[in-house]
Amino acid sequence: MKNDIADVVIIGAGVTGASIARRLSVYKLDIAIVEKEEDVSFGVSKANSGIMHAGFHHSPGTLKSELEIYGNAMFDELHRELHFPFKRCGIVVAAMSIEEMKTINHLYAQGTKNGVIGLELCSRNRIRSLEPELNPDVAGGLYAPTGGIIEPYRFVFSLIESAKKNGVKIINKFEASGQEYKNGIYTLISKENKKLKARYVINAAGLYADRISKMFSAQDFKITPRKGEYYLLDRNSSYKPTRVIFPVPTRISKGILIVPTVEGTTLLGPTAESIKNKEDVATSHDNLEKIFHSTRRLIPEISERDIITSFAGIRPATEKGDFVIDSCDKVPAFINAGGIQSPGLTASPAIAERVKDILKRIGCELIERADYDPYIDELPKLRDTEHETLDLLVKKNPQYANIICRCETVSEAEIVEAIKQGHTTLDGIKFYTRAQMGRCQGGFCSYKIIKIIQRETGMPFNRITKRGGGSYILKKTISMDSKPVL
Ligand SMILES: Cc1cc2nc3c(=O)[nH]c(=O)nc-3n(C[C@H](O)[C@H](O)[C@H](O)COP(=O)(O)OP(=O)(O)OC[C@H]3O[C@@H](n4cnc5c(N)ncnc54)[C@H](O)[C@@H]3O)c2cc1C
């Protein structure tokens, strides 16, 4: 960094900030991302439906619909470069009555206008041929073959890895809390009074993007958090969908869905409830009943016996309902990328493209680097390795023979790689490797993972956390010599 001044600082390392950072790393720029949490992707981007939306849910003329279509089309190339778990399994929307078919017709017309490729209006027989376990009372529906599924946190990790490879600096535990602007340079001030200078600032702060925009006296918008609760079903469930199944949408949400995850589990949800507290991720029994009632209307076979966990995500919803992506005439060298609710994951590469164009428009010189490398290494996963190549893998690295998470078949080698990539909390390792994500939810492997973190980082047992901050595994601080007790 020349004279300790970054050309661009991005606030927030979710999918928006990570996509922008990677896109800008093509150019000769000094770039830093500041993130308030212990690790990247610990905000909205860690808890969502993981759907690659096809582009029929939003009205033509909105930024959401434009960037969703554009973003969706960019994923095949991104996947080739970054190897995150991703599959174009297709999306079906099921209408349970002739009345609901009116909404299907509307979605079809809207999607066609938006430019969705291959969108198909389906009869009852056609929709059941696509998803045979659909309720026999289904009236018909919509099929979008370009829709798909993605592991959202793994996508962010891959973007960050690629950005880092191309020179981007990631600064975790830096909560931007103030700023000063003097002689064309911003000084960003953290909660702990750390300082970072930058010529341009991009706000990608998710649920807190309204606060950051206000801090810079830029666009005035308000984020009202809207909670979505989920239930996750075991990979050995009685029923497993092959495509994403939507009901017809309501006025405020796309409805409660059945989602086959890329890694073989099934996700049910989300609910949609406006809340006050942006950190409230509690789940409730009432919503469990609501989710199962709604999803059984589509697939009667779904069973509560297959639940392995529940969680909630918070949508950064704005009054206008659209993304807020722009510079601001009265504020120099500042760009907002806020209000990024669904389909923010799908749109993220297109959001990055748009932010790059705005940056150029407001005067940032973009000169391509000759040494930009879009690829990152694809590391082997034990669960995907064929028997014939297993021997070779273990010969190269014997840690592949030590299975740490037996539910998801994750080896010691993969945990060590996650730590090398900078993921040193239990959740960071979970999102990177899937260890602790299976049937036992970490009951058997958490202790082993903690021991590996200790060994690889030298961190004392009592400093290891679930997800940073005060989420210590041990409640009380103990002497460094004490024997660990779980
Ligand atoms: C329930 C639900 C379901 C969804 N389903 C889908 C889907 O299926 N498909 C789809 O395309 N989209 C979906 N979305 C939308 C998608 O998840 C979001 O649009 C996207 O994750 C937003 O990413 P982001 O980077 O803007 O925000 P975040 O991921 O929240 O990233 C912002 C980051 O900024 C950090 N930050 C905040 N304040 C500061 C500060 N002062 N200083 C430093 N750092 C700060 C936060 O810690 C956070 O890490 C869903 C969202 C929800 C909630």
Describe this structure in words.
- The chain is α+β, with helices and mostly antiparallel strands and 486 residues long.
- It folds into 3 domains: 156 residues, FAD/NAD(P)-binding domain, CATH 3.50.50.60; 155 residues, 2-Layer Sandwich (D-Amino Acid Oxidase, Chain A, domain 2), CATH 3.30.9.10; 82 residues, Arc Repressor Mutant, subunit A, CATH 1.10.10.1100.
- It has 12 helices and 22 strands.
- Strands 1, 2, 9, 10, 11, 12, 19 and 20 form an 8-stranded mixed β-sheet that branches.
- Helix 2 crosses helix 8, helix 10 packs across helix 11 and helix 10 crosses helix 12.
- The protein is globular, with a radius of gyration of 23 Å.
- The relative contact order is 0.15.
- The mean pLDDT is 95.
- The structure holds flavin-adenine dinucleotide.
- The site of flavin-adenine dinucleotide has 40 residues, from helix 1, strand 2, strand 18 and helix 8.
